[in-house]
């Protein structure tokens, strides 16, 4: 994608002081609010977003327009913009909020107008304390200029928006955990059904939960139109996306690209290849919850559908590149430590299963693994999947565990057989696709997501 087509990041990179509302307005900011509130009916905004094909950027890739159309026909309704961004390897929302906060506020105003909402929150991860302060300033500026508050731009539409800091728990990014947290409760996720936020959300009212990048994209759709937005990417994955490239790559960073790019091109053409020109061993394509891909699986495009066909997911767009020096058992041990720490503890399979997985992996990594541990690990995964209230058990738990073990089985077995940490040469470390399929262990069960 040529640089002139990058909108969100180009604005951030080329316009100094874009966080100041005056600068933002000078560059056309908030015109969509004038346009929508004065010239469009709420349902026209919903239609534009539906027609644009925009899919949520928070991880699940659910179509935004469809989510909005599922709102129960009750009022009041609320908006929660999800800025929890706790998924390891994901940093796009942080960068967007740091560099372009008014774009996100614009999207929140448009979303509220479209859905008959008069009160909204942006739930921000607690560690982002500077962003929380900056958002408070940005909201204050928007109130001063009449884009928030009572009778916005004289149109009769009222909207109040607030920041709400989280306290650093990963589970607060899960939409119903976020809602519980906003209500002041322990963030135990709610059962869906019946607690789909669009039906029964914040304060039991219909609620929209959308990701930060999704909100910014809503502003782009209203500004340029659904057809313009669809001009990027493919029918399955419209618009541009923010990819956070990190790990053992020469040029890590945040890149705004069309999803038509392949993973290989993202790593080698955009990211400059693997650090130190070492061999590539593994890639996690969408935040640590996304099943890992081997060097044979890099020719997949970053489209949501293509990623799913490849047995993984686009997720948050956080891409982790791992070179030949990585011990795959150790890498998975690291992920499982996170999952163990972050399990909220509400559901027994997750609360107990995450520490079991972590303990077994530590045992294997330290050379004390037993032959039966591989089966036991897969069995624990089986007993977590689909047996918990939310997807946490699967996302940073089962999906990485199962995909690492099944695909990099030779390296796990070498640890067990040689009773020590063994980093095999890349070619010997993983199973070829057909062999993984022969094992008959689905590494990723999208139906449960
Ligand atoms: C364990 C877990 C953690 C999540 N963390 C986040 C997060 O930090 N930010 C986010 O936007 N979505 C996160 N999600 C997804 C949200 O539940 C929800 O799908 C999303 O905010 C909806 O926004 P979207 O439709 O714009 O993608 C998480 C989901 C799960 C299961």
Describe this structure in words.
This protein is an alpha/beta fold. The protein folds into three domains: 3-230, 3-Layer(aba) Sandwich (Rossmann fold); 240-323, Ubiquitin-like (UB roll) (Roll), CATH 3.10.20; 328-448, NADH-ubiquinone oxidoreductase 51kDa subunit, iron-sulphur binding domain (de novo design (two linked rop proteins), Up-down Bundle), CATH 1.20.1440.230. Helices cover 44% and strands 11% of the residues. The chain contains 20 helices and eight strands. The strands form two sheets. A four-stranded parallel sheet has the order 3-2-1-4, sandwiched between helices. A hairpin with a 5-residue loop joins strand 5 and strand 6. Helix 4 packs across helix 7 (101-114) and helix 15 packs antiparallel against helix 16. It is globular. The mean pLDDT is 95. Residues 56-60, 62, 67, 82, 84-87, 170-171, 173-175, 209-211, 214, 390-392, 395 line the site of flavin mononucleotide.
Can you tell me the CATH architecture of the largest domain?
Answer: 3-Layer(aba) Sandwich
**Which descriptor suits the 3D outline?**
globular
Number of domains: 3
Proportion of residues in β-strands: 5-15%
Major β-sheet strand ordering: 3-2-1-4
Structural class: alpha/beta
Low-pLDDT runs of 5+ residues are none
Order of helices and strands: HHHHHEHHEHEHEHHEEHEHEHHHHHHH
At the fourth level of CATH, the homologous superfamily of the largest domain is NADH-ubiquinone oxidoreductase 51kDa subunit
* Bound heterogens, unique: flavin mononucleotide
In angstroms, what separates the terminal alpha carbons? 30 Å
Number of strands: 8
Number of helices: 20
- Quote the CATH topology of the largest domain: Rossmann fold
What is the alpha-carbon Rg in Å?
22 Å
Q: What is the C-level CATH assignment of the largest domain?
A: Alpha Beta
Proportion of residues in helical segments: 40-55%
Mean pLDDT: 95
């Amino acid at each position: 994608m040529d640089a002139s087509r990058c909108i969100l990041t180009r604005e951030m990179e080329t316009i100094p002081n874009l966080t100041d509302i005056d600068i933002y307005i000078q560059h056309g900011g908030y015109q969509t609010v004038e346009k929508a509130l004065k010239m469009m009916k709420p349902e026209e905004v919903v239609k534009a977003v539906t027609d644009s094909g925009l899919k949520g950027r928070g991880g699940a890739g659910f179509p935004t327009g469809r989510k909005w159309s599922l709102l129960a026909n009750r009022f009041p309704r609320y908006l929660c913009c999800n800025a929890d961004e706790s998924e390891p390897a994901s940093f796009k929302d942080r960068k967007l909020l740091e560099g372009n906060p008014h774009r996100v506020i614009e999207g929140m105003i448009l979303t509220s107008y479209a859905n008959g909402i008069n009160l909204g929150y942006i739930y921000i991860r607690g560690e982002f304390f500077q962003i929380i302060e900056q958002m408070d300033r940005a909201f204050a500026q928007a109130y001063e200029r009449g884009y928030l508050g009572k009778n916005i731009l004289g149109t009769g539409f009222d909207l109040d928006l607030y920041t709400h800091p989280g306290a650093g728990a990963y589970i607060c990014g899960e939409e119903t955990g976020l809602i519980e947290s906003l209500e002041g409760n322990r963030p135990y996720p709610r059962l869906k059904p019946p607690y789909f936020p669009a039906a029964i959300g914040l304060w039991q009212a219909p609620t929209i939960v959308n990701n930060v990048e999704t909100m910014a994209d809503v502003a782009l759709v209203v500004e340029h139109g659904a057809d313009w937005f669809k001009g990027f990417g493919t029918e399955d994955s419209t618009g541009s996306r923010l990819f956070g490239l990190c790990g053992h790559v020469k040029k890590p960073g945040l890149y705004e690209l069309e999803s038509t790019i392949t993973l290989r091109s993202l790593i080698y053409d955009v990211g400059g290849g693997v650090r130190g020109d070492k061999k590539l061993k593994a890639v996690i394509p969408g935040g640590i919850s996304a099943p890992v891909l081997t060097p044979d699986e890099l020719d997949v495009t970053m489209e949501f559908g293509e990623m799913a066909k490849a047995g993984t997911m686009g997720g948050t767009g956080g891409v982790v590149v791992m070179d030949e020096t990585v011990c795959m058992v150790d890498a998975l041990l690291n992920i499982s430590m996170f999952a163990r720490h972050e399990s909220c503890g509400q559901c027994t399979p997750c609360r107990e299963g995450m520490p079991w997985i972590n303990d077994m992996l530590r045992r294997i990594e330290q050379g004390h693994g037993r032959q039966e541990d591989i089966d036991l690990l897969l069995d624990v995964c089986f007993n977590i999947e689909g047996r918990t209230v939310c997807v946490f058990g699967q996302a940073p738990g089962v999906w990485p565990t199962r995909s690492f073990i099944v695909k990099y089985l030779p390296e796990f077995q070498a640890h067990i057989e040689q009773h020590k940490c063994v980093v095999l040469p890349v070619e010997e470390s993983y199973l070829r696709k057909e062999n993984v399929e022969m094992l008959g262990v689905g590494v990723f069960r999208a139906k449960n997501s």
